[in-house]
Every structure is written in C-alpha cells, then in structure tokens.
Amino acid sequence: MTDTPGTAGRYPIRTATAETMESFAAPLNLAFAELPDPGDEERRVWEPERIIAAFDGDQPVATAGALTFRLSVPGGEAAAAGVTLVGVSPAHRRRGILRSMMRNQLDDVRARGESLAILWASEGAIYQRFGYGLATLNGSFDIARDRAIFARPVPPEGTVRLLGRDAAMGIFPAFYDRVRVETPGMVGRSETWWRWLTLHDTDLARGANGMKFLAVYEAGGNVEGTAIN
Ligand SMILES: CC(C)(COP(=O)(O)OP(=O)(O)OC[C@H]1O[C@@H](n2cnc3c(N)ncnc32)[C@H](O)[C@@H]1OP(=O)(O)O)[C@@H](O)C(=O)NCCC(=O)NCCS
Predict the structure, then answer these.
(1) How many Cβ atoms are within 10 Å of 17's Cβ, its own excluded?
(2) Contact, 54 vs 97, CB < 8 A?
(3) pLDDT (tens digit, 9 = 90+) per residue, 64-83?
(4) Residues lining ligand 1, judged by CB closer than 6 Å?
(5) For residues 79 and 118, is the Cβ–Cβ distance under 8 A?
(6) Domains of the chain, earliest start first
(7) Looking at ligand 1, which atom is closest to the CA of residue 27?
(8) Which of 14, 19, 226, 228 has CA atoms 20 to 30 A from the CA of 99?
(9) Nearest Cα residue to atom 44 of ligand 1
(10) pLDDT grade, residue 4 (50/70/90)?
C-alpha cells in the first residue's frame, strides 16, 4: 500500500488491493446516491492497483480509479488510462480532495508510460482544470417513425438475426475489433467487459426499459453490423 499526502495531509491517499477495492470504492455510492446492484462484484472490470481512496481517519471518503485501455489512433493504437470511479462523499466536498486524487492519478498514469488519460465527465465543468479537454462530440436524434423515410432507396439485402448472449460473445467482440482498428477513438474491451457490461441484461441495469436485444446483420456471408437495443 502506498501512502501519499492528501489535502494538507488531512486526507491521505492510499492504493487499493484486490481485498480492499470494494471498501475503497464505497464512497462512490454516496457520491452518486446509488445503491449497489446485487451481483455487481462478479461483474467488476476494475483493476485494484489503479483504484485509490482518500481517507478521513480509517474511513474512505473519496475514490478514483483508472482502467488500462488501448485506444485506436490514426495508424495504430496508444496506451490510455480510462479514468473512472471518481467521487467524493457529499460531506467532504470542496476541500481539494478531488484535486489531490487527480494529481496522484496523473502521476501514476505518467509513471506507467501512458500518454493519454480519457474520461466521460458527469458534468462538463469539472475536468478542464486538470488538463482534460473536449475530444469529440456526440449527437442523438429522436425521429418519429411515421414521419421518416430513407432519403435514398435502400434495397433489402442480407439478414438480421437476434442472438442470446453466449452466441453474441462469439460474434460481437470480433466484429467490434474489426471496426475499431480503422476507427480512431475506440477502446479495446476485455472479455469480462463484453460479457458483463456490454451484453449482459439485468432488470436493474435496464431500468424502465424492456429486455436487451442483441442483433447481428449479415450480408454476402459476412458479419456487416451488430446492434444492441
Ligand atoms: C465533482 C466532485 C468529484 C468534486 O470533488 P471535490 O473534492 O469537492 O473537488 P475539489 O474540492 O478537489 O475541487 C477541485 C476543483 O474543482 C472545482 N469543482 C468541484 N466540483 C465541481 C463541479 N461539480 N463543477 C465544477 N467545478 C467543480 C472546485 O471549485 C475546484 O476548483 P479550483 O481548484 O480550480 O478552485 C464531487 O463533487 C463529486 O463526487 N460529485 C458527484 C460525483 C461526480 O460527479 N463525479 C465525477 C464523475 S465523472
């Protein structure tokens, strides 16, 4: 366990182990006002040695983590830290704890030789001060089906099949990797990630939505697309 000074030495930062990572990450439930889902622990993609917590006495009050990613870039791949699990208990905010965790984490990212740290921010105003910036834009559209037609005719071709998770495990990751190598900005996913985060379906994860459908589109004997709805 490495100890590094936290804010004014009051909230020392420690690095988790496989045994302590659940308790180190517990402040996240408070930070996001969420209860853990039953079965969460078996679905973890966490890397314990990349999870840190700030302590008030013997209590973890804030946490931050990173995942080891390969990010596709023009011409190849780059090592990237996928920053995640960031949260500070509501009773300990605005005391510089996030700032001290970010310093600790970026030092670690650098020591690992990763030239990139990437994240999705829960709020757009948080991370600029730590050196993060907007990397891409994302758009979504709601289109009323009875008001929409294709601009150009699309002759029906190929077939769409619905798959169960095990069958999808044999098709989705390979297809994704095919697209990933030619699409800058995509990150590789581990088998655990595919099985438990991308393709897994639970009542809790889907909230008010219906069951998760996994579909593969095949044309000319090849997989040409996958979709999750
Ligand atoms: C966002 C959060 C992590 C901030 O933690 P914190 O320990 O209070 O932050 P710090 O005291 O270290 O503040 C660091 C800097 O960020 C700023 N900051 C803190 N919260 C902010 C917010 N919600 N929006 C914008 N800026 C914020 C502070 O003003 C401070 O700025 P400065 O150092 O330039 O003066 C915490 O409020 C939290 O856990 N929120 C809910 C979970 C969440 O959103 N996590 C981020 C997931 S991507």
Answers:
(1) 12
(2) yes
(3) 999 999 999 999 999 999 99
(4) 31-32, 86-88, 93-99, 121-123, 125-126, 129
(5) no
(6) 3-130 (3.40.630.30), 154-228 (no CATH)
(7) 39
(8) 19
(9) 122
(10) low
